[in-house]
Amino acid sequence: MSEILKGIWRYQQVSRVELVDQIGLTSGTITNLTHELIQLGILRENEAISGNVGRRRVMLGFDPRFYRIIGLDIGRSSFEIVVMDLNGTILQSIERDMNGLQGPDAYFEVITPLVAGVKSDIEAAGYKILGLGAGVPGPIDYDSGTLLAPPNFPGWSNYPLQKMLEDQFGLVTLIDDDARTSAMAERWYGLGKNVNNLVSVTLGMGIGGGVVTEGKIVRGTNGLCGQVGHMTIVLDGKMCGCGNRGCWETVGSIPGILGRWSGGSTIEELQGAIKRREPEALRCLEDTLGFMEAALVNIQNLYDPELILLGGRLYPLLSDYLVQVKPRVQSRLYAFAKDRLRIEPSTFGNSQSAVGAAALLFGFLLAEPVRLLSLREK
Ligand SMILES: [Zn+2]
């Protein structure tokens, strides 16, 4: 079943005959399995007129009429909830400013009624909820679904987030590092659909990364794979929350950039000063781009992706200068590989992490549909 769902995800609309060609199962087996998936409300048949002969063909696609997925982005300064269907369409999105809220209790006081409200609206409209995903600042202990010691997120150390969400809302729940959910959003619903090797970089209050290699998200031994914000960029630089010195995050995140500029305290102010061509602001920008250039070269050499995606709250500031950064990065790469590198903005803007949190459930559905649906029934 997983192979069938993946085939349909890749091509969106596929006929049974095409599935037989792609997957190599007999047409009888394909017919039985797709029948079952249609009964379950996962797939539906759509009629399409095929090619120049004008013959009618029955195409299979995901059914957007029964299931909904809820995605949460539990951020340091903001919270977002999205509702998605099985086609990856964002049906609803709600955001809240969470600045000044300390710790899980205060946080849940705001989000519990919001999520409960969205959940009951979905159910009242007759839909079923496949599950709930959440993106959070990592690192995470995946076995227990516990946050470890997220930097700049006081009160959340050792917090059993997955269990708390499950208990509160009674849904199948998956959690992951917010940078990794952002990579999942690309992999399942965005530009990563046709790209097997990609690195997604989120630039904001911190710098996070998610690595997709051969189509799979890579976690590493400690769940730290792709933590590109913690690559050493300044050898004897400032202490970082991770224990290292001079990480990219200490100089390239929002606080890292503002810490190198004395002319103001927000990114918007810095942007203004750059427009006015104030020398200190221009120097700060030039250093920021230099750090990014080095980081992107390292990312490219370490992970060898086809595509590097950049997003997060800092992206709008940096996007104007990418035209300059890209050739500088390329000049430092292997000659035969440099022209193949693509650097693109992430697909879902600020909703990237919440969409990716929903994508965790979609990925689970594609990998183990029967298990997910039986967990739902419990
Ligand atoms: Zn660090």
UniProtKB/TrEMBL annotation:
Entries under InterPro entries matching the protein: ATPase_NBD, ROK, ROK_cs, WH-like_DNA-bd_sf, WH_DNA-bd_sf
Pfam family, one: ROK
Keyword line: Carbohydrate metabolism, Xylose metabolism
Signal peptide per UniProt: none
PROSITE patterns: ROK (PS01125)
Function statement: Transcriptional repressor of xylose-utilizing enzymes.
Name of the protein: ROK family protein
Organism (species): Paenibacillus agricola
